[in-house]
Amino acid sequence: MEGVGGESASAASPVNKWIYDASRLYQYYLDKTTPLSVYRWIGTFVLVVIYALRVIYVQGFYIVSYGLGIYVLNLLIGFLSPLADPEMGGGSDGPLLPTKGSDEFKPFIRRLPEFKFWYSFTKAFCIGFVMTFFSAFDVPVFWPILLCYWIVLFVLTMRRQIAHMIKYKYVPFNLGKQKYGSKKPSAGSSGRND
Fold first, then answer.
1. Helices (DSSP H) in the chain: which residue ranges?
2. Number of folded domains that form the chain
3. What is the DSSP letter of 81?
4. How many Å is the Cα radius of gyration of the chain?
5. What are phi and psi of 33, to 5 degrees?
6. How many CB atoms lie within 10 A of CB 63?
7. By its UniProt entry, which InterPro entries does this protein fall under (predicted)?
8. CA-CA-CA-CA dihedral for 118, 121, 123, 124, to nearest 10
9. 67: in domain
10. Burial class (CB in 10 A: 0-12, 13-18, 19+), 73
11. Is residue 2 in a domain?
12. What is the pTM of this model?
C-alpha cells in the first residue's frame, strides 16, 4: 500500500516545481516593473495598437473588442472611484474623503490602485489578442451599432462619475507637487540702496 500513488507524486513533482519556479520568476519581473509606470503604460499601449491592427486586418472580432471596451470602462470606474465611497456610507475603517471645508485632508485612495488597473488592462488585451486567433469568437455583428452603444455608455458613466467627483469634492489624479502662491520679495529686501 505504501507504493500506491508514489509514482504519480514523483512524476508530478518536476511539473509542480517548474510551475512554481515559473510563477516566482513571473512575479519577480512583475515586481520589478512596479515603479516604472510610464514604461509599463507605453508597453501596454503598444499592445493595444497591435490588437487594433489585428482587428482591422482581420475585419472581425468586434464582439471581442466590445467586451474589452466594457471591461476597460469597468476598470476605469474602479480607478476613478474612492476606496471608501461617501455615498455608500463609507463602509471602511480607513480614511474617508473630506466632505466639508473644515475636514482634515485625507489622501485619495483608489478602489482600484494604478498597478492593478494596469495589470488587469494589459491582461485583458492579451487575452483579447489570443481570442482573435480562434474563429469561434468572430461573431458577425454590425459594429457601428456596438460602437455607438459603447460611446453612449461611456458618456453616461463618465458624466455620473464626474458628478460624483464634484459632489464630494475630490480629484482622483495626482498632478504633482502642489504649488502655492509665488514668493514675492518684501519691501525691505528690494535690493536698492537709497
1. 6-32, 37-58, 62-80, 114-131, 143-168
2. 1
3. S
4. 25
5. -85, -10
6. 16
7. Rer1
8. 180
9. yes
10. middle
11. no
12. 0.71
What is the structure's pLDDT at 116? 92
Strand partners, 82: 110
In a domain, 190, yes or no: no
Q: What is the DSSP string of 8-31?
A: HHHHHHHHHHHHHHHHHHHHHHHH
Q: What's the grid cell of residue 92?
A: 471602511
- Tell me whether residue 78 is in a domain: yes
Residue with cell 494604478: 114
Instruction: Give residue 32's domain range.
Output: 17-172
Q: Are 111 and 82 within 8 A, CB to CB?
A: yes
C-alpha cell at 75: 476598470
Query: Per-10-residue mean pLDDT for the chain, 194 residues long?
Result: 54 82 90 90 95 94 94 91 70 54 63 90 95 91 91 92 81 63 56 50
